[in-house]
């Protein structure tokens, strides 16, 4: 059977042969065409996922969905949690229209997820209870839970799912 290691060796030897024969420019062109064909196909089918919320210049969530390029948009990041603190960092995006934008995206059959974690050290789950509290907050603040007294930053809009982008912290909880 062909293993990843075998495939790596074959590709490495092919690249070295191309370099020796000065065919690397042809390989580069072939790879570029393959990449562009993949992007063109993805644009045509709308089967791309994008992280949204990390750059204020990227436009609104609604504008992102209106491009027709994506079938999943991941709002990033819910990055402050644990120890009773809960907040997201959307790099200067105004939170007020996000709920309506979320519903707009969903009306176009685009799934909207919320990514928790990301870079930084403002989150931790020091105990199983802390993990349960964060899960409870995510459910009631961003999904279909409606516990009274829980702040819902996107109003009555609910995200379709959660993306766990945990870069830091202990894997214990």
UniProtKB/TrEMBL annotation:
<dbReference type="GO" id="GO:0005576">
    <property type="term" value="C:extracellular region"/>
</dbReference>
<keyword id="KW-0812">Transmembrane</keyword>
<feature type="domain" description="GH18">
    <location>
        <begin position="46"/>
        <end position="173"/>
    </location>
</feature>
<keyword id="KW-1133">Transmembrane helix</keyword>
<dbReference type="GO" id="GO:0005975">
    <property type="term" value="P:carbohydrate metabolic process"/>
</dbReference>
<dbReference type="GO" id="GO:0004857">
    <property type="term" value="F:enzyme inhibitor activity"/>
</dbReference>
<keyword id="KW-0472">Membrane</keyword>
<dbReference type="InterPro" id="IPR050542">
    <property type="entry name" value="Glycosyl_Hydrlase18_Chitinase"/>
</dbReference>
<dbReference type="Pfam" id="PF00704">
    <property type="entry name" value="Glyco_hydro_18"/>
</dbReference>
<dbReference type="GO" id="GO:0050832">
    <property type="term" value="P:defense response to fungus"/>
</dbReference>
<dbReference type="InterPro" id="IPR001223">
    <property type="entry name" value="Glyco_hydro18_cat"/>
</dbReference>
<dbReference type="InterPro" id="IPR017853">
    <property type="entry name" value="GH"/>
</dbReference>
<feature type="transmembrane region" description="Helical">
    <location>
        <begin position="23"/>
        <end position="42"/>
    </location>
</feature>
<protein>
    <submittedName>
        <fullName>Os08g0519300 protein</fullName>
    </submittedName>
</protein>
